[in-house]
């Protein structure tokens, strides 16, 4: 019985990653997609989640086997020029991610207290950085579990207020239905799920569970526990994402209301579902923004530390600088641009460019016997990741052509 419950001690790293794809940018993509295309794009969330499980599970193996995160491994095993391109582009992409997270906090604070966006952004940066600089992994995991629970319960409450065709939800979640007019929105929904900073972060935080790298039995046990944590957490994220989409369908699609931003969604919920539903929506967005700001900041510390072949350690200067580059860089963009929504569009373009670089780096490292030993990828895993990389690259090319 004790061994059965021992696995629960290993749940946490996956949840930290999960908040990365239920962030405010993801909220915006889901609510906008649901309001315009109804049930047609639910399968994209399923496809994105399956892709995420494969990539996150694989990159966690790198951390377990080598004791290095993805950034450290890239620095150690790549040509210096190549490693600079991959890692510095990853930092830029992480700043872009943080931009959306901080804006989510600011928009939620504006909804709740009429606080200006610039001030709400500052509050978001200050609070998230305080939490990063004053907490260990395990304490942060507890905060994140609480945040994810609040987000999840907020959507359960919202969905209880509307009528939903669960048969349509089930079918549409697994049966592809794509038309030319929905392709760009589908790309946005997919891109809001699969993001590079989560890959760097997962390979680092999986090491918060200490183990003996010389003991093969211990490593295999870690693989099992990690897969349970990753699968459970990603499925939880899948459920929350579907809930967002379905809520948007029920509230906006059938009333032919096209929602273009989160503030609009909040205002529209008041006459449709009442003040309490709108309040819970804003609180869920607030906790989503805070939790994802924490994880993007941690990812920034991980990547920047990896440039110097060091582990994430919030007491060392490299990690501190990485966290500050992420949050203050995003804040600087918010203050310097006139159109914040336009800045978000460009930030997504940065993610589109960087993600194939991260996937290609991960595939090279985890398929290399010199690096992974007998735990290198098998042929099926290599093919799966290669297909994912080619698919995402193709989507990016199509996106830029359009």
Helices, strands, pairings?
Elements: H1 2-6, H2 13-18, H3 24-37, H4 42-66, H5 70-77, H6 80-113, H7 117-134, H8 137-159, H9 166-172, H10 183-191, H11 196-205, H12 216-253, H13 262-273, H14 275-307, H15 317-336, H16 340-366, H17 369-372, H18 379-401
Can you tell me about this structure?
The chain has 402 residues and is an all-alpha fold. The protein has one domain (2-401): Amino acid/polyamine transporter I (Up-down Bundle). Helix content is 79%, strand content 0%. 49% of the residues are buried.
The CATH superfamily is known as: Amino acid/polyamine transporter I
Mean pLDDT: 87
Main pleated sheet: none
> What is CATH's topology name?
Amino acid/polyamine transporter I
Named CATH architecture: Up-down Bundle
How many DSSP helices? 18
Estimate nothing, just give the exact number of structural domains. Answer: 1
Total beta strand runs? 0
Short description:
The chain has 402 residues and is mainly alpha-helical. It has 18 helices and no strands.
Name its key features.
402 residues; mainly alpha; Amino acid/polyamine transporter I; 18 helices
């Amino acid at each position: 019985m004790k061994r059965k419950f021992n696995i629960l001690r290993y749940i946490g790293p996956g949840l930290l990653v999960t908040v990365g794809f239920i962030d405010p940018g993801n909220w915006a993509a889901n609510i906008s997609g649901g309001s315009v295309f109804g049930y047609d794009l639910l399968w994209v969330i399923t496809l994105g989640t399956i892709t995420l499980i494969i990539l996150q599970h694989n990159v966690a193996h790198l951390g377990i086997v080598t004791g290095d995160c993805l950034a450290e491994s890239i620095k150690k095993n790549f040509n210096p020029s190549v490693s600079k391109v991959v890692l510095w582009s990853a930092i830029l992409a992480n700043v872009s991610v943080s931009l959306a997270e901080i804006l989510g906090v600011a928009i939620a604070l504006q909804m709740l207290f009429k606080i200006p966006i610039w001030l709400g952004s500052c509050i978001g940066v200050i609070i998230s950085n305080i939490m990063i600089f004053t907490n260990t992994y395990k304490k942060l995991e507890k905060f994140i579990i609480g945040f994810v629970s609040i987000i999840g319960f907020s959507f359960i409450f919202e969905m209880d207020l509307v009528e939903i065709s669960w048969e349509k939800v089930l079918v549409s979640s697994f049966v592809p239905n794509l038309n030319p007019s929905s392709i760009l929105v589908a790309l946005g929904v997919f891109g809001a799920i699969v993001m590079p900073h989560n890959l760097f972060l997962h390979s680092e935080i999986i090491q918060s569970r200490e183990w003996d790298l010389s003991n093969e039995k211990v490593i295999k046990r870690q693989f099992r526990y990690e897969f349970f944590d990753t699968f459970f957490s990603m499925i939880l994220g899948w459920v929350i994402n579907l809930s967002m989409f379905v809520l948007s369908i029920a509230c906006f699609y059938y009333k032919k209301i096209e929602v273009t931003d989160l503030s609009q969604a909040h205002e529209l919920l008041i006459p449709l579902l009442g003040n309490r539903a709108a309040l819970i929506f804003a609180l869920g967005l607030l906790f989503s923004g805070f939790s994802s700001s924490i994880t993007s900041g941690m990812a920034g510390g991980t990547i920047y530390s990896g440039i110097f072949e060091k582990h994430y350690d919030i007491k060392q200067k490299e990690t501190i600088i990485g966290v500050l580059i992420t949050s203050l860089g995003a804040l600087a963009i918010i203050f310097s641009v006139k159109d914040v929504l336009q800045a978000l569009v460009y930030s997504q373009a940065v993610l589109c460019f960087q993600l194939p670089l991260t996937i290609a780096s991960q595939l090279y490292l985890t398929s290399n016997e010199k690096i992974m030993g007998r735990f290198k990828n098998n042929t099926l895993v290599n093919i799966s990741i290669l297909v994912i990389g080619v698919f995402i690259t193709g989507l990016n090319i199509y996106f830029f052509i359009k």
